[in-house]
Structures are given as C-alpha cells and as structure tokens.
Amino acid sequence: MADSAQAQKLVYLVTGGCGFLGEHVVRMLLQREPRLGELRVFDLHLGPWLEELKTGPVRVTAIQGDVTQAHEVAAAVAGAHVVIHTAGLVDVFGRASPKTIHEVNVQGTRNVIEACVQTGTRFLVYTSSMEVVGPNTKGHPFYRGNEDTPYEAVHRHPYPCSKALAEWLMGLLVCGGLPLVTCALRPTGIYGEGHQIMRDFYRQGLRLGGRLFRAIPASVEHGRVYVGNVAWMHVLAARELERRAARMGGQVYFCYDGSPYKSYEDFNMEFLGPCGLRLVGTRPLVPYWLLVFLAALNVLLQWLLRPLLLYAPLLNPYTLAMANTTFTVSTDKAQRHFGYEPLFSWEDSRTRTILWVQATGGSAQ
Ligand SMILES: NC(=O)C1=CN([C@@H]2O[C@H](COP(=O)(O)OP(=O)(O)OC[C@H]3O[C@@H](n4cnc5c(N)ncnc54)[C@H](O)[C@@H]3O)[C@@H](O)[C@H]2O)C=CC1
Ligand SMILES: C[C@H](CCCC(C)(C)O)[C@H]1CC[C@H]2[C@@H]3[C@H](O)CC4=CC(=O)CC[C@]4(C)[C@H]3CC[C@]12C
C-alpha cells in the first residue's frame, strides 16, 4: 500500500460477516471504502442476503468456515490486506458451554492473529466489548468513563472472560514487535436494525397486551451505541491503521456516539414506545430481592432441564447485574486518534431502529 500503489485495490476479510454487527460492517465497507477490491465474508452460517451483494462492482466472496479451525482461517486470510474480526459467540444466557465460548472467542481470535502473521496480513481490527472492563462482579458503577478511567475489572462469566483474554492476545502482539498492526474496538450494548434482543422485548410486550414492566431503576445508566456507528468505526479504524500505525497500533477504543444515557429499559422504550408499547411503572414493580431470587431460580431450572431441553431465559444473575449496574462511556479517543465522528445522529439511529422494529418485529423474520 505504498504511495506508488495509491490506486491499488485492497482485499478485506470480515469474520462473522453475517452476524448482527458483521452484516453492517460488510455493507458499510461496500458503501464507504473506495479502495475495496475484494470483500471476503467469513462466517459459520452464511446469510442469503449475501447473494444480492455479488452483483455489485466489488467482488464479494462468501466463505463458510469456522474460526476455531486454524486451516480454514488461514485459507480465508491468505492474501487479505485487512482483517476485521467480529466473529464471536455472544452468549450470556448459558446457551453454550464455557468451553465452546472459549474456543470460539479466544482460540478463534488466536487463529485469526496467527493466520495474519503467517500469511503477511498487516492490519487487523478486533471487535472487543465493554465487558472487557465491566461491570465487574462487585457491581461498581462505571459512570461516563473513558479508556483510561481506573476500574477494577473482575470477570467470572465465560463471555467477558473470553473477550478480555482475546483482547489481551491482541495487545501481546504489539509487545512482541510483530509487523501486524492491530487495534481493538469496545462497543457498549449495540442496538439497531437486526438486534434480536430488541425484537424479543417487542414480541414480549405484544404478548403482554402492549406493556412491559419496569424491573430496573431509571437511574441506572447503561451504555448503548448504534450499530451503524459501530460499523463505521470499524471501517474507519481499518482504513486509518496503516497511516496512523504508530498511534493506533495496540490501542483500545470504546465505541460511542450521540445515543443518550439511559437505563436499559428506558433506552429500549425510545424504539418500542413509538411501536405502541408502554413501560409500566416509574419505579421497579418487582422488588430487587425477588428478581435476584427469580434469576437464581432460572439458573437452577436451566441446570435441571438441561438433559431434556435448553432453558435460557433473559433473566439470570449475570444479566440482572449487567442491567442493574451503571456502565456508560464518555470519550473522544477515537476522534483524536483516527478522526472518528459518528456517521448517524441519534435522531437517525432512532428512526432507523424504529422502522426496523415496526417492519420485522411482529413477523417471523
Ligand atoms: N451485541 C452487542 O451488544 C455487542 C457485541 N460485541 C461483539 O461484537 C461481535 C459481533 O457480535 P454480534 O453481531 O452482536 O453477534 P452475532 O451473534 O450476531 O454475530 C456473530 C457472528 O459470528 C459468527 N460466528 C460465531 N461462531 C463462529 C465460528 N466459530 N466461526 C465463524 N463464525 C462464527 C456467527 O455465525 C455470527 O454471524 C462479537 O465479537 C461480540 O463479542 C461487543 C459488544 C456488544
Ligand atoms: C438481557 C439483558 C437485559 C435483561 C433485563 C431484565 C433482566 C430486567 O429483563 C441485557 C442487559 C445488558 C445487556 C448486555 C450489555 O448491553 C452488554 C453486552 C455486551 C456484549 O459484548 C454482548 C451483549 C451484552 C452482553 C448485552 C446482552 C444483553 C444484556 C445482558
């Protein structure tokens, strides 16, 4: 990618490119990366929507593969200039075993890193998570913090443990002096078109006669960021890693935009309200001790029922702690380091999400 090759077309690989975030990254690259020559989309499950992208000017290559299989990753990475690694097992509900979560999120990331090193790929952007920092097991608030805010990060749950380990692997590379330039992006709770949990809440509200019941105090802030802005941040970081390698290499960035600071439930109501739902109660209707009890009961039921069926409700001690602990970010690090500005205003993000909930929320899609 030297000066003489300004017009050189680049090969990008997006792992997890058919997931919620991955699809937005893929579409954003096609729209906003002028140097894109080939786009490889690597995922365990390929989406049918990829077919429509194959008719455009950029060569789109769909690769069905598993990040836990080093040879499959190496084959996909070979010849790619830039890798955006979003693939991951997002499970805080006990659907997958801790071993599987580790294999996909940690070993999978190690395979991606090693493939880049072996095949000479120089730029790697990793999708990390706010959960690498917290909320911690002690329930300490992280109130509008930034990447340098001191916080006691203590993890026990397999998902944050795996994301923290994977991010640590990224950092290790820089210390090792390898030619690979990496950075990690840490989204808070992502929302937007394709957000399954938002749709689940919508359907639950419809079943309950258009109502949802407040469980979390309105004063608990939970960080959220629009998927289009997270995707844009990935595309921009990937583009700028070359030019600003010395500054960006080995760095971590929270993903942020103009989304307001609210509780998890109040934030969801920004979209579900205009879709006809109502959040009942200005204070939690169920006492906290009862939620703690129900969450523990769910764990017991999950364990008892496991031989028969997978019982994985939204409420468990971990998700309750997540929703009930303030964790919000306020930072401009990505702006300072690589010129990131959100592409979508809060109003745009909100409208797009509402339209999506209205269009698909009630359907089986
Ligand atoms: N959803 C959220 O609120 C947040 C997500 N993240 C991170 O963003 C990334 C993307 O998450 P989402 O799009 O929400 O999840 P998702 O589940 O919609 O997407 C993940 C994609 O990875 C693929 N994948 C899973 N295991 C794989 C394997 N073994 N080999 C190849 N592909 C595999 C899945 O098929 C899926 O398409 C993850 O790394 C996650 O940890 C970070 C912060 C917040
Ligand atoms: C499902 C939780 C809300 C349940 C509320 C209750 C128990 C009262 O009904 C969600 C609350 C917080 C969410 C997580 C958070 O946004 C951060 C995340 C980061 C990631 O990297 C992956 C997703 C998630 C863990 C997200 C998952 C759903 C919540 C736990």
From TrEMBL:
Q: In which pathway does it act?
A: Steroid biosynthesis; Lipid metabolism; steroid biosynthesis
Q: Which domain of life does the protein's organism represent?
A: Eukaryota
Residue stretches making up the 3-beta hydroxysteroid dehydrogenase/isomerase domain:
13-279
* Sequence intervals crossing the membrane: 285-305
For this entry, list what GO says about its biological process.
Answer: steroid biosynthetic process
Q: InterPro entries under this entry?
A: 3Beta_OHSteriod_DH/Estase (IPR002225), Lipid_A_modif_metabolic_enz (IPR050177), NAD(P)-bd_dom_sf (IPR036291)
- Name it: 3 beta-hydroxysteroid dehydrogenase type 7
Q: Which gene encodes it?
A: HSD3B7
